[in-house]
Amino acid sequence: MSASPSAFDHAYEELRARWPEFTEERDVATPYGPTRVHVHGPADGSPLVLLPGGSATGLVWFANAPALGRRFRVHAVDLLGDAGRTERRGTPLKRADDLTAWLDAVLDGLGLPRTHLCGHSYGAWLAARYALHAPRRIDRLALLDPTQVFAGFRPGYLLRALPSVLRPDEARARSFLSWETAGRPLDETWQRLYALATTVPGRKLVVGGRPRTAGLRMPVLVLLAEHSRTHDAAKVADKARRALPQAEVTVLPGATHHSLPLSEPEKLNDHLIRFLG
Fold this sequence. Notes:
This protein is an alpha/beta fold. The chain contains 9 helices and 8 strands.
């Protein structure tokens, strides 16, 4: 059973209200349709583009925006093909290359010839692909518990996710979140938005192969969640260090995959601010 659009819209607007005052909502024109970007921070701050995980929407960074927005001009994007305020309209979304072309258009529309780029989960996969596609546009790259970048998913994670994929339902999505995060507290407004997002009709997350991370030449930060159920964080850390000897790779104690980036935001913000400089 799908949630009515009004339920998702209400949750979306409720979480939007948690963003700092003076956050700007921009709808950036692209060949794939208008893209919603939440913009916060000083106009002359170094640009930082944030890509969320699937179903999280760009609003998931609400707990990070106040601190990051003191140093950077934050641009949090609603992903193409996912729930949110970004619309699919015009050029069809078919393959991973469409996502990089779409992100090219988003950065052009925002007037960002260069930027820092940070992604979480699926957003980290896209961020890594984009940094390989357009390395001259990326100053520094931060990957938060990236999936399908250095390793695949644990089979057990996929099995637990399957019911909410095949039969999207708010209760199933909440149960899945509770399992992955080992029941640690999650913001209720965001949790409701995430659960409702999984039921929005027409979602189409395009996936592809693992990016050739050895080709990344810019400074890279890899932050892994110690208790992530998507993969073994220690093993992924080893793979990341071998693939990118120049990268800074850190395992965040106590963190889970889906509790990022809103659980203990101060620790995450400290890592990002120090790395991005």
